[in-house]
Structure formats: structure tokens, C-alpha cells
Amino acid sequence: MGKCIVMALVDHKRKFIFIHIFKCAGNSIRKVITDPNNSEEVGSGHANARDVKELMGKEFDDYYTFTVVRNPFDWLFSTYYYVLYSGHTRHKEKVSLLDSFEDFPRHYVEYMMDEQMPLGSNKCTMLKDFVCDEDGNQIVDFIGKKETLQKDINTILTNIEMPPLTVPKINITHSKIGKNYKDYYSPKLVDYVNKTFADDLRYFNYEF
Fold first, then answer.
1. In what order do the strands lie in the sheet with 8-11?
2. Which 3 state secondary structure label does DSSP give 142?
3. In the CATH hierarchy, which fold is given to the domain comprising 8-203?
4. Poorest-confidence range of 35-44, 59-68, 75-84, 122-131?
5. What letters, b where the CB count within 10 A reaches 16 and e where it falls short, cover 158-177?
6. Most buried pick, 99, 112, 130, 165, via CB within 10 A?
């Protein structure tokens, strides 16, 4: 989030599109799949699939598309720490004024998601909005999970005709190391996320 070059990664030789959702191991995946001679960035900063499809037109449907998601509870916690401590996000000033993580999920929904951004740009949305069109239809071929990253990346590599590779750990938020997101959720906050992110939790089969 913020100033970055992590857009949707398109490889024209191997015919794939990687939808890079923030704080879902995207930089680690890029390290494995990027070919400097054939890879192109489309959009600007974590573009969602529907924007990439509009930017690419009919060509989008000819490519194998994939992404990786994360438990929304953990994703919100990781996003909070990234915004707070990375030093270069457009949301840092306002997030730094919050009393604690307890206030962040509501801030994300009511303020960060309300920000108007151009086509193909880095929008704060629900996870499902990264992979579906405006009618809620999934337009990404494969959705992996950070919790099963190595297994899922091997599936992806098979589909893009690459050998199995170990995914490195990159762009770790060091201020979050050793912290378990479950320790930072009050019952009230769990209830809020369960209700507000109900579609994401149900669609990707996650729970607290």
C-alpha cells in the first residue's frame, strides 16, 4: 500500500496474471515467478482483478489468473502493523492516531475503503473484491491461501509449467514478529469483523 511498484504481474510468455493482494505473501511469490524478460506490471499498486480485466480487455481471459488470500482477521492485523511501521503508506498519519489495533478494522472499513481511487490503482477493499467482478462472480482461476502457501504455490507453478520451488520469506513486518493476531482481538472486535467481513469469511472458508 502507498508508493510501490507491486501491480498485477503479467507474464506474456507463460500466459499468466498474478493479482497481488497486499499482505498476502505477494513479494515472496513474485520472487519465485518473475521473469525480467517477459513480466510486465499492469495497473498501479495491488490492482484488483476487475480493474486488470478492464485494462487488458479480452486478452485477460486468455491468461491463467491466480492470487493468494489470507484469513481476514490475520490480514487486518498484518495490514495495521504494515501501515503503522512501514514508513511510506498514504494512510500512516491517520492510523497512527488510533488508540490501538482495536480501532483499526472499523477505520479500514469506514475511511480507508471509502477513498476514491482511479482504475487500476491500489484500493482498500474486502478480499473478495480483489477476485470477483462487480456482480460477485469470481474471475480469478486459482485462489491460494497464505496458510498453505507452499502447497498452493506448487499448484500454481505446475499450471504455469515451472518446477516446484521453495517460497522465500520477504517483506516481513518485523514489528509484528512473535505476535499472534488472536491475542489482539477483543470479543467485541471479533464480532465486528465476523459481521463486516462475513462475505470474505464465508467465501474463503475462514473463521477466527
1. 39-42, 8-11, 16-19, 64-69, 142-145
2. strand
3. Rossmann fold (3.40.50)
4. 35-44
5. eebebeeeebeeeeebeebe
6. 130
